[in-house]
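The following block was generated as part of the benchmark described in Methods. Ligand: S-adenosylmethionine.
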Amino acid sequence: MFLMELKMIKIANPANTIDIIKKYGFNFQKKFGQNFLIDTHVLEKISQASGVGENDLVIEIGPGIGALTQYLAIGAKNVIAIEIDKNLLPILKETLADYKNISIINADFLKVNLETLIGDAKEKYGEFENIRIVANLPYYITTPIIMSVLESHIHIDSITVMIQKEVADRMQAMPGNKDYGALSLAVQYYSKPYVVAYVPPNCFIPRPNVGSSVIRLDIFKIKPIDVVDEELMFKLIRAGFNQRRKTLVNSISNFEGLSFSKDEIVHALSLMGKSEKIRGEALTLFEFALFSDYLGKMAVKPGQGRENE
Ligand code: SAM
C-alpha cells in the first residue's frame, strides 16, 4: 500500500479544535483518553491512508469534536461515528451540521452491536464497496478495541488508526525483533499491518506522554495460514510469550488451561525439526499453527476423536 496512490482529501474550512474547545469551555476527560488532533496535515494523512472511497462505509470510534469526521464524511458514502462522551454531542452537532451522511451514536464502542449498525446503514444507503474503521483511538483501550473487531469475524475491510507508537511497533514486529509477541501474531493472523506515519505529541491537545503512529490493518479475506484449532493455537501463543525467557517446553507445561506433558511438547517440536530449548519468540505464525496441530492430535485419545470422524 503506497500512500501516494491514495486519494488526498482537503477541506476549505476545517473545524478549529482549539477555538471550539474554548468556545464550549470543554473539559478534557483523562478517563476517556481524550487527546484531540490539532494538526490538519495529520488529519489529511489519516483519511488518505485509510483509502476511504465514495462507495464506502466508515465507522469512526471517538469523533471528539469531529475534526477527523469531517474528512471522512467528504470521502465516504456514510460515516457512523460512535462517541462515549455525551458532553461532545452539542459540539458535534455544530461542527458536523453541514454533513448529511453522518450518524452520531452516543455509546461505548465495546458495547455496540456492530453488525446491527452496519445492517441499518445498508438499509438506508444500499451496499457498500468497503467497510472501513478509521479512528484516533483512545489509548487506554486500543488493544481491546482492535482485537474485538478482528475476533468478531464481522466483515470489515480495513482498520486505520492512530495508536501509541510502541503498540504499533508490536503489531508489525516479526520473529527476531524485541517487539515480537502475542499481539504481533494475533494481528498478523487476521490482517496485514502497515505503519503509515509517526505523529509527535505536539500534534495533539492535551499532549500525550507518548509518541503515536498511524497504522493500517488490511483484513484478510482468506487467512494466511491453516490451523485446525484456532483457540489452542492462541493459548499456545499466550503461554509461549507469558515468560519470554523460558523455553516453550517449560512455559507450556506449566500454563494454566493447557495439559501437555513435557514429553509431548518435546515430541511435537521434534516433528517440526526444532530443539527442545527453543523459546516462543523464535517461532513464526506458521510454525505456531503447525505446533498447535501436532499437539492437538496428541490431545485426541483413541476412540474420542478425529481419527473416527
Ligand atoms: N477523533 C478525535 C480527534 O482525533 O481529535 C478524538 C480522539 S481522542 C484520542 C479519543 C476519543 O474517543 C474521545 O473523543 C473519547 O471521548 C472517545 N472514546 C473514549 N472511549 C470510547 C469508547 N469506549 N467508545 C467510544 N468512544 C470513546
